[in-house]
């Protein structure tokens, strides 16, 4: 018998939220976690804010981890992706601004299927579509 989490629309999916400590990133990360996704919280600074966000998500029954990396430093981005791949596998969803998409895809390497790339503003519509699709 499935538990309540397995009925969530993003159960079993992994999301990487870039700059999860900005207001838009924080909102996106919390929404994805509430929908059942495991969430890697990237932060360039403000470690305390990232750890508090991860704790809030975990306290609500979600899965989250925080990782610091400078998105302009390829080696740091690769380290973030290596940790994500080691713990949860290939991400299904990448959230951030357009400037990070190409660098993240390069750091991840070839993935099949490729992750869905979303801006912070697109997350609510993506979640609404996921919930509708899950009911069908």
From TrEMBL:
What InterPro entries does the annotation carry?
NAD(P)-bd_dom_sf, SDR, SDR_fam
Residues of the signal peptide: none
Q: Which domain of life is it from?
A: Bacteria
Q: Per the similarity annotation, which family is this?
A: Belongs to the short-chain dehydrogenases/reductases (SDR) family.
Name of this protein: Uncharacterized protein
**What is the organism of origin for this protein?**
Methylomonas koyamae
């Amino acid at each position: 018998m499935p538990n309540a989490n397995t009925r969530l629309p993003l159960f079993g999916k992994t999301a990487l939220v870039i700059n999860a400590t900005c207001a838009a990133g924080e909102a996106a990360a919390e929404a994805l976690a509430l929908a059942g996704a495991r969430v890697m919280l990237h932060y360039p600074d403000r470690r305390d804010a990232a750890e508090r966000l991860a704790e809030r998500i975990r306290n609500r029954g979600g899965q989250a981890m925080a990782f610091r990396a400078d998105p302009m430093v390829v080696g740091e981005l690769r380290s973030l992706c290596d940790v994500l791949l080691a713990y949860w596998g290939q991400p299904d969803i990448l959230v951030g601004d357009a400037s990070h998409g190409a660098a993240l895809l390069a750091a991840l390497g070839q993935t099949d299927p490729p992750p869905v790339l979303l801006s912070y503003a697109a997350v609510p519509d993506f979640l609404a579509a996921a919930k509708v699709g899950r009911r069908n």
